[in-house]
Write a structure and sequence with these properties.
Largest sheet: none
Strand content: under 5%
Distance between the termini: 51 Å
Oligomer: single chain
Number of helices: 6
Low-confidence stretches: none
Helix content: 55-70%
Order of helices and strands: HHHHHH
Radius of gyration: 24 Å
Shape: elongated
Amino acid sequence: MAFTANQKRQHIRELQTYLHAISFFNEKIPRVIPDGFYGKETALAVRAFQREYGLPETGNTDFATWNKIVSVYRSYVYANPVSYNIFPSASYVLRQGDTGILVYILQAMLNDIGAAHDNIPDLAVSGDFNVQTMEAVKQFQKRAGLPQSGSVNSGTWNLLVRTSEHLNKSTSRT
């Protein structure tokens, strides 16, 4: 059964998507943009992949190359989660008025901890370090024996992360 031109482009785009993802894990694989056309950049990425994974370097995607690309892609994507170090530095302080993803994560951790402990209020996860977030941080700091500044330095952050991880591990076992 022959493929239509559209089906062939879809297969090429799938190959390019896998190679693109693999390139984030293995910098020896050139990043190719999935466009559905098997051009020079795709052939170079395939050749680099073949070299890196011990296959004959042809730049063509034969059955063995395809299977290996899919296998490597799946081994990266379905592996255990990769840790993501988000706190900027040991000297950084997150405080009232700050916004963004770091505040979302802070609020989510505080809610996790608050679900297990009555003295930490439930928060709206908004990404805005507001008065309620500051009060929840103070309550956590009080419970943890830390100075009750209401701001989050690396010490408060580290203890929040470990407490949240501990709670998540203990609830996932039940």
